[in-house]
Q: What sequence folds into this?
């Protein structure tokens, strides 16, 4: 007997939505990801060889969809994200933001320029490469090294505390660089 997408939806959609909802920020995100899962199920249902293994197959598709979503959203950031103008900032973010630009200014010229162009002026790394006459891989490498240098300086300067979503809650200065 071959299962249809409709049969799979009726039997598993509520459980999969709960599984997804426990791992994302909102109901809307859970609904979007559940839809993505069932599009994949619909296009790949013919690859299911054993109807008795449908649950593990579905959960693997769901886990992969979640991982893809996390990657697209850049959950793992290397720098403290500064809010857009008008967004509320925590006191910790305000204090670090005031010191961050000074730390960027202290970077060696080529790394400072890479960060300023990409992070502050909003150029893509491809645009930065074109402007500076670098290869794209060279530009990406320069930005990554600059981010790493800045991250190391921030971590040497302060101990940071984050909430479960990665938002800065508080920090404790380790030396006099942070105010």
A:
């Amino acid at each position: 007997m071959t299962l249809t997408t409709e049969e799979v939806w009726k039997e598993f959609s509520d459980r999969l939505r709960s599984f997804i909802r426990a791992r994302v920020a909102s109901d809307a995100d859970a609904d979007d990801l559940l839809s993505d899962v069932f599009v994949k199920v619909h296009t790949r249902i013919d690859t299911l060889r054993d109807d008795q293994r449908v649950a593990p197959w579905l959960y693997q598709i769901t886990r992969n969809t979640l991982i893809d979503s996390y990657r697209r959203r850049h959950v793992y950031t290397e720098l403290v994200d500064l809010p857009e103008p008008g967004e509320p900032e925590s006191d910790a973010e305000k204090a670090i933001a005031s010191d961050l630009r000074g730390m960027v200014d202290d970077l060696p010229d080529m790394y400072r320029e890479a960060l300023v162009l990409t992070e502050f002026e909003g150029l893509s790394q491809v645009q930065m490469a074109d402007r500076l006459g670098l290869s794209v891989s060279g530009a990406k490498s320069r930005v990554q090294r600059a981010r790493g240098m800045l991250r190391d300086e921030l971590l040497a300067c302060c101990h940071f505390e984050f909430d479960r979503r990665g938002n800065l809650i508080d920090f404790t200065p380790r030396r006099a660089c942070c105010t």
About this structure: The longest strand covers residues 168-173. The two ends are 68 Å apart (CA to CA). The beta strands are 158-162, 168-173. Residues 136-157 form the longest helix (22 residues).
